[in-house]
Amino acid sequence: MTAVLSPMLTSLAFLGPAGTYGEQACRRLARLNAAEQARFCPQPTIRAVVNALLDGQVDGAVVPVENSVEGGVTSCLDLLWQSALSPAGVLSIQQALILPIRHALLSDGEIGQISEVLSHPQALAQCAAWLQQHLPQALQLPTSSTAEAARLVKGSRFRAAVASRQAGLEQGVNELAYPISDQAGNCTRFLLLRRAQQPVAAAVNCTSLAFSLYANAPGALLQALQIFAARQLNMSRIESRPSKRELGEYVFFVDLETRSDADIATALVAELHQALEPLCERLAWFGTYPVIDDTGLL
Asked: For residue 185, what are the CA distances in angstroms to 132, 182, 235?
């Protein structure tokens, strides 16, 4: 079978500024798609990254969706679901990239002088034990990104940032300690999003969907999950998020292992849709796509 190619990527948004893990993922995904010459557009928040795509400012967006230590990135999940409710249509996942995360402590002061540590909340949580051991009295302050934290501590002798080594190089901030992540296997899964449904790649290994149920009743979720079990499909992830309409009402996000070629995967999605639709108030398909693992785990 001849693979159908997606339209060329000419511009990509990511959570900036320069030096974030989001930029690392963005440049890696650009290389994988032969789009090294694409225009890279840093954004201040994950919502701004997605809005840049929806507004047509870029034709691709790279967002974090899950961390191995802290779990799902809720803002990303919520934005995916909001797109499913929008007349503009569902965002499409073209690829996923699993990137190793190795944090450093950056500052222009000495470690004994540090009284404040800045970073994205997830990065602070991923280094909680190290910070408790080495900087137990330091105030932890959240920022919009790890690279923004590195920018904010430049020149300060009492502030430090938890960020990548690359962010330290970009901002010209000294490295005090590396690595400081609590878990050596810390990694984050990033998604490459497009505006419209993309052609299915020749070889895929994941299908992502989300659904809400008609009724919050005993066995309602089990009925939906049995559809996957009956077809011997493994769920590599299931996560719930509040619907935001009323207490106790949830949206369920599911990733299915679908190791197959494009034709088989497309037929499977059609079959699953037919089986799930009668049970679901809303059903959104985000894509069937390849997952690239840069950690060496797959």
From this structure: 20, 9, 21
Task: Sort residue 149 into left (φ over 0), alpha (ψ -120 to 50) or beta.
Answer: alpha
Residue 198 is predicted with a pLDDT of: 62
Q: What is the pLDDT of residue 16?
A: 85
Tokens of 37: 């010459």
Burial bucket for residue 169 (CB in 10 Å: 0-12, 13-18, 19+): middle
Per the listing, tokens 């939906």 go with 224
Task: Say what the pLDDT of residue 189 is.
Answer: 95
Protein fold of 104-177 = D-Maltodextrin-Binding Protein; domain 2 (3.40.190)
Q: Where are the beta strands (DSSP E) in 6-165?
A: 11-15, 39-43, 60-67, 71-72, 92-100, 104-106, 116-119, 139-142, 159-163
Q: For the chain, give every domain's residue range.
A: 11-101+186-194, 104-177, 203-293
**Low pLDDT (below 50) residues in the chain:** 1-5, 298
Distance CA 43, CA 168 (A): 19
User: pTM of the prediction?
Assistant: 0.87
How many residues does the structure list for the chain? 298
Give residue 1's pLDDT. Answer: 29
Homologous superfamily of domain range 203-293? ACT domain (3.30.70.260)
User: Among 3.30.390.10, 3.30.70.260, 1.20.1250.20, 3.40.190.10, what is the CATH number of 11-101+186-194?
Assistant: 3.40.190.10
How many CB atoms lie under 10 A from the CB of residue 280? 18
Neighbours of 55 (CB within 10 A): 10
